[in-house]
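Each letter names a residue; the fold follows as tokens. Both lines appear below:
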Amino acid sequence: MGTTQLESVPEPKYWHLKTVLSEALDSEFAVGEILPNERELAARFGVARATLRQALEQLELEGRLQRRRGVGTTVAPPRMGVAVGTGGQVWPGTADDGWQPVDCDLAPPPAAVAEALETGRDEPVHVVRRSRVTHGQTVAAELLYVPQSSVPELSAIDAPSGTARARAVLRELQRRELEGQDRSVELGSARADDAKELDRLPGAPVLVVTTRFVAEGRTAALSVATYRADTCRLTFGATGDVEIHHGPERQAS
């Protein structure tokens, strides 16, 4: 059989260099280690800096490298697995869910969230901010929207502000019986506030995981979690929990 036109096209230089660099990352560098500058790397591998940049950009997209402001290009830790199964239904804030409360405000939610919560657009809800950290780096940020009707026993005296108020909202939410939850995942672009928290540039690719928690036949809370797309990968299984994978695999999503 003759070769197709696609098969006859030679492999781009940057793609071959990406493979060589990937092998070097496995054998010569540790997680978090800073790579030599572009001039040194280009000289080492005998390529133009433009070719090197293409290879580095591809490795960054695949989650092998991270470019950090004021630091340089470092070897990325293993990707976090974002499970999208249907089981494992629990309220947010359980001891092992991996999220850390940061703050809590009472404010009107975005229109789409208000519609999902069946609240008025100008009706304030509790907005709990949480973050997820692995290997010392923030890899996800969450906004958890909780209507005041979902936590009617919450007292301003018990939870005046900040982290304490966030924990109190989560604690009161867990007193209710969770009837079910559903989750959706989509690719998005980092907004300015998300980008700052995740140490990315605005517009960088992110995974947006939206989870709806149901109690007494209505949406009792809505979570919008933003994950760095370069450090996370989707996993499919029986559970709906978010798990951290610290294994050696580094395959792209």
